[in-house]
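Board work, copied verbatim: Spore gernimation protein
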Amino acid sequence: MFREPKKNATNSNEQQNKEEPEKLPIPASKREFLDVLKEKVHSPADLVIKNISATVTIVYLDFLIDGKILNEQILPILEKEQSAPPKTIKEKLPIAEIDLSAELNKSVLEMLIGAVLIHSEGHSELVIAKISSYQSRGLSAPENESQVIGSQVGFNENLATNISLIRRYITNPNLCNEKFTLGKDTMTSLSVLYIDGIASEQHVNTIRQRIEDLDISDLLDSAVLSELIDDNSFSMFPQLLLTERPDRFCDGLLSGKVGIVVNGSSMAILCPYTFIEFFQSREDQNLRWQIATFIRLLRFMAMIISIFFTPIYVAALTFHYEVIPQPLLVPLSESRAIVPFPPIIEALVLELIIELLREAGARLPTKVGQTIGIVGGIVLGTAAVEAGITSNILIIIIALCALASFTTPNYLMGNVIRILRFPIIILAGFWGFFGVMLAFCFLIIHLLRQSSLGAPYMAPIYPPRWKDWPDSFIRMPLPFISRQSVNSRAQSNNQETNENLAKEEKVIR
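↓ predict structure ↓
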């Protein structure tokens, strides 16, 4: 299921000829047609065959079609036109999506996604009436991206419903929707959406090429697709945003990003995305700029605390007692007097306990999970201190780091922050502050090397994008914010715009 490098033209043509299914004709005889069709789909229990007359037969899969349309619009017409040829039946049926097909494989694929096959005795063509009807849950509030002020509607698993939600937000004729199908076994439909004239054509072409180059057997969720088409699958940091909010998705499209909606998934993909944007919330646009700026700075401070606070504690107690203020030395010594483990073991054990509690609370039912998280944390923390396994101060530090990691508005980025603590704690336990600085330098270098759809991952910090700074760490008043970021906007033919971009690129050199 990994993206393979593009093959040369000769090998690609040979492979395509080998994998291209044989074009089987439609048998003119009804009995032969049904025999071949049953053999093709292995006679499933939900295969429905109805003989309308001696010459007309309809075939479909139960639960995949709209029974009301079938009974009210198709069957009455077929009962009147019992001996009509396929072309006449196609003209008579009041169905929006209807087609003629002379290929058996194509007809079977259409039936598998919710079409009715109409066969007439003596004709080697089928009428394909597409009246699919999939069961899906109703619209509800997003569970992972909640907000107080703003829309309370989230995507669901139906592609058509999600597209309609997007078009309700953006009534723009330039909103483009390109449909693709991925997965040899699942035949999953997905749509690539962007606004022509706003989104960069280079980014659209990149997404289009990466999707077309994929050779996978199945695709069940958009999270899998995001990993397959991102720039660096070996990096822990997410390079594409997964969101369940239509308002955030549309806000990204209006700012020049490219979106992907996958059928069967309630999460949509937005790209390109920078590191700073993962710490921004859609609710920031709905708050006053002073409050939004304070909350953003609080998130970045929480990220730093969550990653480095515990490693600094371990390094200070292991190698660098001189950095600890004298008033704190006595409480620290008394707290650790009966602890038999070195600080690195003590910190790692507590971090693992926190992760176990969090994972148990996430997998259990909601009410039970909340109880396990609260009671488990209190009981285990109190018991650990009384048993002399850990100190009171480290309990406070670990709890603060865990709490700070939950302030990140993006779930994937929050997971990365939690995992990063472990290798940094180990380095701090072996090399002290030198290990912490080594981890910090490695982290910065890794982030500077990353890209999202070819765009710099650390913009607008590096390369400097001064026009994007008013909506980065801080959120300035809306009139001062550029609607389209430099990374995602379409390249303009305006000479002044190109000159400004060239000046910004000179900073790199």
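The longest strand covers residues 175-182.
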